[in-house]
Amino acid sequence: MRIRTRSLTFGLLSLSLLLLPLSASSSVHATGLAKRHRPAPRDTGQTIKIFGTSVVSGAMDGTVTITMSAGFSVGELANFDWDLPLAQSIQVGGYDETVTGETFTFSEPPNTSQDLVDLSHPELISVRRFHWDSPQPNTQITVSETLHLALHSDLSPFSSTAPFPMGGVLADVQPFLTQTDSLKLPSSADAIVSKLRSSGSSEQQVVQAVQDWVASNTVYQAAPNQPFNATWVFDIHRGNCQGYDDLMQGLLRKLGIPSRTVFGWVSAATIKYPGPSNSFSSLNWSLAGTPGELHTWLQAYFPDVGWVSFDPQEEKFFSDVRHLAFFTGLDAQIPKNYGVWAANLTGTNEFGQNFSSGTPIFVPGDGITSKVSLTNQDHFNMAFRQQLHDVSSLIMFSR
Known about the structure:
By secondary structure, the protein is mainly β.
């Protein structure tokens, strides 16, 4: 009997978004996507707290090595295939990431592997399929993946001449105008959409107005068991990073502006952004002393510039080098082919739990400890340019 399923459900996204799905007993702080603790730790006497957007210039460069380790039990399976996502280099406006190395190490090496890349279907991601003919029965297979990344954040002033409303977009961008289920807005949002539609004659003005509205009207709340889709976040004004992204993307697509989600990880290391009068603001995407957390952010499309990186929780027109991108998707829902696996049952010793039909399902990452380790090296050259009073109750950063 051939079984095909996914390693973990989307309801456990905060535990499964890594290239290597984490188990339910992860030893890192991964109980919510990019769990924010506002205000971030700050150095007394050196920060001037001015709500709005601090515009900075310069550049941020960094190199990162991240190792993700996990284990799963195989019971008695044969012809076992497991698809693990491949990290892709990304070059977009305000953010470049180059994958300089990627290795997978297994306690029981697979017999074969092959890369499956299909860029024509944006709802799918590139994966490497590992195949075991007959893994040792009733044992755990441990997996470690190590990524070496070179990152660059461009803080030169962003400028686009694209008008609003936008004209036609290229065929490969067209799917990112789709109103997916998680991006649909309630009818009560029509007035806000109309107001945002009249916020400028350029796409840049409208996108900035959308992010300002989302940031000013949403409070961070870590609760992965909530839907946190665009409708939910619009109605209750709370959400995690998925919620911020789906709400901003729902508004952008309602306005005819293409957008897509970036899935990845954020390092916990502090960034000190320069502010007015020789002050600075300290930004932490995660709890200090941890390797960081799972996170999503987004990219918006400008016809004259291409894709441009945003994080609606804190950053406009760029994302910093604490953001480690793994793959992109149509929205903040986990891609359809993430962590999919298939196998044949052997013998009579069934391991795992059963569907209601009685068909057994075997779940890799079924409670074996997972962990993440990360090192990063930075080179920052940043300067303060101006302060914008455009966002309430929050300090944001822009280029």
